[in-house]
Design goal:
alpha+beta, four-stranded antiparallel beta sheet, two-stranded antiparallel sheet, 6 strands, globular, binds iron/sulfur cluster
């Protein structure tokens, strides 16, 4: 699933988006509530996307490559996980 704001897009791989445990982790990790956990897994909250502070906590909370934060304002470059 992917949602785009004006400046930021977020993509969660289909293999992970239905995982309620991952959904809870993402909901907890993001300081600006871009992820909402539900019974069916994670939902991206479109109205909060442009609040992203590029902290990378969602990348740390998810299996490598399953969550992408896309910088639409910067040629669609991807936010990189902390080394
Ligand atoms: S980088 Fe930080 S603010 Fe942006 S979506 Fe991930 S957890 Fe939320």
């Amino acid at each position: 699933m992917r949602e785009d704001g004006v400046f930021i897009g977020v993509e969660v791989d289909d293999s992970a988006s239905g995982d309620p445990e991952l959904a809870r982790k993402l909901e907890e990790a993001c300081p600006v509530d871009i992820y909402a956990a539900g019974e069916a897994g994670v939902r991206i909250v479109p109205e909060n996307l442009d609040e992203c502070v590029l902290c990378g906590l969602c990348l740390d909370a998810s299996p490598p490559g399953t969550v992408k934060v896309i910088k639409l304002y910067d040629g669609d470059s991807l936010l990189q996980p902390a080394a």
